[in-house]
Amino acid sequence: MFSSRLHWDLPPNRLAQALAAKRAAGAPILDLTESNPTRAGFQYPDQEILAALGDQRGLLYEPTPTGLLSARAAVAEHYAARRITAPPQQILLTASTSESYAWLFKLLAGPGDEVLVPRPSYPLFEFLAQLEAVRVVHYPLVYHDGWSIDLDALARCVNSHTRAVIVVNPNNPTGSFVKRQEAERLTALCAERDLAIISDEVFSDYAFGTNPDRVDSYIGMDAVLAFSLSGLSKIAALPQMKLGWLVVTGPPSLRAQACARLELIADTYLSVGTPVQHALPRLLESAKHVRQQVASRTRDNLANLRDTFGASSPVQVLQVEGGWYATVRVPRTKTEEEWCLELLEHDGVLVQPGFFYDFEAEAYLVLSLLTPPDAFREGVRRLAARL
User: Fold this and answer.
1) Do the beta carbons of residue 186 and residue 165 sit within 8 Å?
2) What sign does the CA torsion over 56, 57, 60, 63 have?
3) pLDDT digits (tens, 9 = 90+) for 73-113
4) What integer pLDDT is reported at residue 7 of this predicted model?
5) C-alpha of 112 from chain center
6) How far apart (Å, rounded) are the C-alpha atoms in residues 380 and 382?
7) What's the distance, Cα to Cα, between the start and end of the chain in Å?
8) Residues paired with residue 138 on neighbouring β-strands, in sequence order
9) Where do the H-state alpha helices sit in the chain?
10) Which fold, 14-43+287-386?
């Protein structure tokens, strides 16, 4: 009776079972996986946000497929503040980055076609692609004192069914940005093989320091058809507002065709709420203070992590350039699952194993830098004692 797009027989893993048992028993847990900014203790401009959502214009239904011009102009202004030119006519609003992916898979791929995604990376791609009857093929990121794309391996993944390459910039959870030489080679490959680039840039506002060799955005790189994704979830730390966007870049003819087709897809769903669109200019303006808090906390937590595990430690904090996460490489005396279970059951510390993000080798642990500072420091102290 039901679709075969997804396999629904997904029993909880051992870590999830152990965590549920701990919580049922009321045991205290230092959660170093916190990824919900609204539960991480940041100070939001509550009254400004609520006032923005109370705009009277939200009472009028305005079915604009690509999004209200005023909202798209606000997105363009946000990019302009970063010295990136994103004309409103190349911006389409969506309900989330996940919806942006769904629209792009509809636009670019037919059933059975393939998209290339990085490994390690966020595990949502598999589900999003399967829901569109699209296959995911992984290409590797490799680590040598910093993360980079294995471009030769990526090229070997391309075949007649490949339709797009996804880059996550900076990557989640590795925190690595695409470098200019990588972007040039990837662009040349995509131009030669008639592939689109989907650049997930939701964490691009959270870079640790500057690097002239870094590609901050694919917006304006017009050699191939490309789509840059972001939204309020990370920029304003407001995932519940359900507003994202994609910016279309590329040769003018291809760009125009893509925009026209995306507008038809958007018109089919009309999923973005009118109140949040009218609120968007004020939400983006008020988000600056929250972004500063997030940037400060992630930077301080990362510094604490690096100070705790110095050069002589058997635990290595991998290089991270941006985002909300850090990865540590731990001794392979236990599996990732064993390390996580031991930390949870004996130390009351919750971390994520690398295999949640498709790390291909053992043993890696992933920590959220959003964690409130006191909890993070104590959790890292216990982690160091255990390791």
Assistant:
1) yes
2) negative
3) 999 999 999 999 999 999 999 999 999 999 999 999 999 99
4) 73
5) 25
6) 5
7) 49
8) 117
9) 14-24, 46-53, 69-81, 97-108, 124-131, 151-157, 180-193, 232-235, 252-269, 274-308, 336-347, 373-386
10) Aspartate Aminotransferase, domain 1 (3.90.1150)
pTM of full prediction above 0.90: yes
Cα 365 to Cα 102, 306, 336, distances in angstroms: 30, 14, 7
Element (H, E) at 138: strand 135-143
Q: How many CA atoms lie within 13 A of 102 on its CB side?
A: 17
Domain residue limits, the chain? 14-43+287-386, 56-285
Q: How many angstroms separate the CA atoms of 50 and 121, rounded?
A: 34
**Which residues, at least 6 apart from 241, have a Cβ–Cβ distance to it below 8 Å?**
232, 233, 276, 279, 283
| Residue 254: closest CA among 233, 225, 217, 278 | 225
* Residue 127, both tokens: 């589900």
CATH of domain 56-285: 3.40.640.10
Measured between alpha carbons, how far is 382 from 387 in angstroms, rounded to an integer?
9
- What are the tens digits of pLDDT across the range 307-361? 999 888 899 999 999 999 999 999 999 999 999 999 999 999 999 999 999 998 9
